[in-house]
Design a protein that fits this description.
190 residues; mainly alpha; Lysozyme; 10 helices; elongated
Length: 190
C-alpha cells in the first residue's frame, strides 16, 4: 500500500471520528438543554408565566444544571435562596421543609422560582407597560434594589428603569435573560 493511500485512509478515519464526536457533543448538548422542558411547561402554565421566560431564567441562572450552587447560597435550576424557599414553604403550608435537600429537586426549584417570579410580575404589573425587566431585577437583586431603581412618574419606563440599574451584573442579567427569552419565543418551542 502506498504512503498516500495510508494517509488518505487515516484522514478518512479522522473525518469519521470528528463527525461522530460532533454528533455526540451536539446530541448531548441538545438533551442537556431540553431535559426539563416538560417540567418548565407545566410549572409555567401553573403560575401563568411564559414558558420561554421561565426557560430563559433557568438558562441564565444555572445553564440547566439542577445541582448548581451560587456563591451566595443559591441552589438548583432557578438558583433559589434558602430564605426564599422557606417563604414559599410557609405560604404553601409545607411543614418540615428542608431547602438544602428540596432545592436540588428540579420540580421544587422550578415551582418556587416561578412562584417568586409571578409574584414579582404581579407587583409591577400596574406600574409599567412591561413588568418583565422590573421582575427580573427583583429576581436577581431583590425587591428593595428594584424599588430604588424605579424612579420618575408612573407608569415607569422599562428602558429608563434598566438604565437606572446600578449593578452592572443585574443590568446584564435583565438584558441577556430577555434576549434568551426572545430567542426561545422566535423558535416557537422550548
Amino acid at each position: 500500500m502506498s504512503r498516500w493511500r495510508k494517509l488518505r485512509g487515516l484522514l478518512n478515519a479522522g473525518v469519521v471520528l470528528a463527525v461522530l464526536g460532533a454528533a455526540v457533543f451536539y446530541g448531548y448538548r441538545y438533551w442537556w438543554e431540553h431535559r426539563f422542558d416538560d417540567e418548565i411547561l407545566a410549572v409555567a402554565q401553573k403560575h401563568g408565566l411564559s414558558p420561554f421566560l421561565v426557560k430563559a431564567v433557568v438558562w441564565r441562572e444555572s445553564r440547566f444544571d439542577p445541582n448548581a450552587r451560587g456563591r451566595k447560597g443559591e441552589i438548583g435550576l432557578m438558583q433559589i435562596m434558602p430564605a426564599t424557599a422557606h417563604e414559599w414553604a410557609k405560604a404553601h403550608g409545607v411543614a418540615g421543609f428542608d431547602p438544602q435537600q428540596a432545592l436540588f429537586i428540579p420540580a421544587t426549584t422550578l415551582d418556587i422560582g416561578c412562584w417568586y417570579l409571578r409574584r414579582a410580575l404581579d407587583r409591577w404589573a400596574g406600574s409599567t407597560s412591561d413588568p418583565v425587566p422590573f421582575a427580573l431585577a427583583e429576581y436577581n437583586a431583590g425587591r428593595s434594589n428594584a424599588l430604588r431603581w424605579a424612579t420618575g412618574p408612573k407608569p415607569f419606563d422599562p428602558r429608563q428603569f434598566v438604565s437606572n440599574v446600578t449593578y452592572r451584573t443585574t443590568r446584564a442579567y435583565i438584558l441577556t435573560t430577555q434576549q434568551q427569552c426572545q430567542r426561545y419565543a422566535a423558535r416557537g418551542h422550548l
